[in-house]
Amino acid sequence: MRTFRSVRDMPVLATAVALAAGTLVALAPTPAQAAAGAALPFTSVEAESASGTGTRIGPEYTQGTLASEASGRQVCASPRAARRIHGAPRPTPWVDGDPNTYWESANHAFPQSLTVDLGAREAVRRLVLKLPPQAAWQARTQTLSVQGSTDGSAWSTVVPATDHRFDPASGNTVTVPLPAGTNLRHLRPHVTANTGWSAAQFSEVEAYLS
Questions:
Q1: Per-residue pLDDT tens digits for 49-68
Q2: Own/partner pairs for 167-172, CB < 8 Å, 24+ apart?
């Protein structure tokens, strides 16, 4: 019997809507089949080198999870940040799809920010910011704005500074709508205060086109 090291190695027999490299695309309702005949437990696959008019939902590395445009992208912390990474030895825990790993900036050194490079200009309509969902993470409010740039050099304020409450009772998740017409490559949550700790904290930064 032929075996495969990963789903990426399996020949897919369903017809996919072709998309740009590194994106996911929804397939027809019939699940894809492996060569050995086993049904794969999802209806989305990664299109490596294709183009088309399908709906982009970004790269993703966690089975069964729809990706944000920010997943797996290049991310950097602000110069003052200590780049403290908790939970796993990953360079960018805020785009790894795992809400249990998180980044925390240097303490007592506001403002702090994270910059996400989407790889190309995208019409992002909302950012979803997360902290670990465990109840041990008590409710807190982070004051933050969203800054944006087309080239990573010239920045403007996309969303002005606002208090955002993270509460484990609601998944420790905050959604920040972006104005219509936003079309940027670089996005940067910019934190100036946190009532739960003396640092900026995020476990995930997700960008969505709708």
A1: 444 545 555 555 554 555 56
A2: 167/139, 168/133, 168/134, 168/135, 168/137, 168/138, 168/139, 169/139, 171/130, 171/133, 172/99, 172/130, 172/131, 172/132, 172/133, 172/137, 172/203
